[in-house]
Amino acid sequence: MEWAWGMAIGGWAALAQVQPEAACSGLPIETYVAARGESAAAIARARALKIETLLGANPAIQKRPVRQGDALVILPRDGILYRPEPGEGFPEVAARFRVRGEVLFEMNGCRMGERLFVPGVLWKPPAAPVADAPPPAAVKGVPTLLQLPPPPALPPLPRRPSPKNKARSRVSMTAPWFARQHVKIWQTLYSTALTSIYG
Fold first, then answer.
1. In what ranges is there compositional bias, type Pro residues (predicted)?
2. Coil vs helix vs strand at 35
3. Which of 30, 31, 42, 126 has the greatest number of C-beta atoms within 10 Å?
4. What pairs with residue 79 in β-bridges?
5. What are the start and end residues of each CATH 3.10.350.10 domain in the chain?
6. Integer distance in angstroms from the first to the last C-alpha of the chain?
7. Phi/psi of residue 119, nearest 5 degrees
8. In what helix (H) or strand (E) does residue 138 lie, and over which residues does it extend?
């Protein structure tokens, strides 16, 4: 029993020696000045980081190569730098990124700043906008639609003449017949033109 009490007392003494400053020291975020000929992949590989971590922390090199003299933010491990929204605290940020609140709290020195280091979250480039489909006339191999005028409407049929005027209207009845023949000819030409274009 004496050795058990001795181990318990020793454990309590070790816990008592842990200072709050050690738990809230946070992880250091460094700044590195790129040398000539260095690439983002090489800088990330030398520090055991994924290239997404380096690019996410340095927006200046997300769309261009690393240049000599670039001051790059180097995170302590894979993660992102996040700017909290107004009213957000550690619990809200931890819930947003699904990380443990106490880990987030300790890694950021137990205090809220303008930017928080969120471990374990990888930066993703924004999705490229989807271009609108070109109009059918701009697609190669598709013929342009021929704009033909609509066929004329059929003229209204004349009213049937009375027996008294039957002989006199016989001559006038021939005019609508010619009009209908004209419409039939026009419709035939319209159909032939569409068939020759679109097969």
1. 150-160
2. coil
3. 42
4. 119
5. 24-119
6. 101
7. -80, 155
8. none
- Tell me which of 112 and 5 has the higher pLDDT: 112
This prediction has a pTM of 0.53
pLDDT, tens digit, 9 for 90 and up, residues 6-65 = 444 444 444 344 455 556 777 888 999 999 999 999 999 999 999 999 999 999 999 999
Q: 125 and 104 in contact (C-beta within 8 Å)?
A: no
Tokens of 180: 């209908």
H helix count then E strand count, the chain: 8, 4
Instruction: State CA 163 to chain mean position distance.
Output: 79
Mean pLDDT over 167-178 rounds to 56
110-130 per-residue burial string, b: 16 or more CB within 10 A, e: under 16 = eeeeeebbbbebebeeeeeee
Burial classification of residue 171, based on how many CB atoms lie within 10 Å of its CB (0-12 exposed, 13-18 middle, 19 or more buried)? exposed
Instruction: Say which range, 57-61, 94-98, 128-132, 134-138, has the weakest mean pLDDT.
Output: 134-138
Three-state DSSP at 103 gives helix
Rg (CA), the chain: 41
- Domain spanning 24-119: CATH superfamily: LysM domain (3.10.350.10)
